[in-house]
Amino acid sequence: MKTQQQISQWIKIYLAEILEVEPEQVDENYEFERFGLNSSAAVSLVGDLEEWLGFELSPSLFFEFNTIAQVSTYLAEMAQEENTLENVA
What we know:
Helices cover about 65% and strands about 0% of the residues. It is mostly helical. The protein has one domain: ACP-like (Non-ribosomal Peptide Synthetase Peptidyl Carrier Protein, Chain A), CATH 1.10.1200. The radius of gyration is 13 Å and the shape is globular. The two termini are about 15 Å apart. The chain has helices spanning about 5-20, 40-55, 60-65, 70-89. It comes from Dendronalium phyllosphericum CENA369. InterPro entries: ACP-like_sf, PKS_PP-bd, PP-bd_ACP. GO terms for molecular function: phosphopantetheine binding. Pfam families: PP-binding.
């Protein structure tokens, strides 16, 4: 199960590669608009993140949440729920 911190770091590294900057330069409290994240980049990011996390995500995830901090907190909660459901089944 991935933690909020692990998810945040993964997204920072992903965005840093796109922006050609160091991950430390990607502030998790900046709104995604500041990174210039267009819809096709957001869809690619969601697809890669789904694969890494192991569960399906909404294609509009990065438009529903404004910052990496918000998204990673939400996804960590989802990961915990997924883990709980797997343990019940």
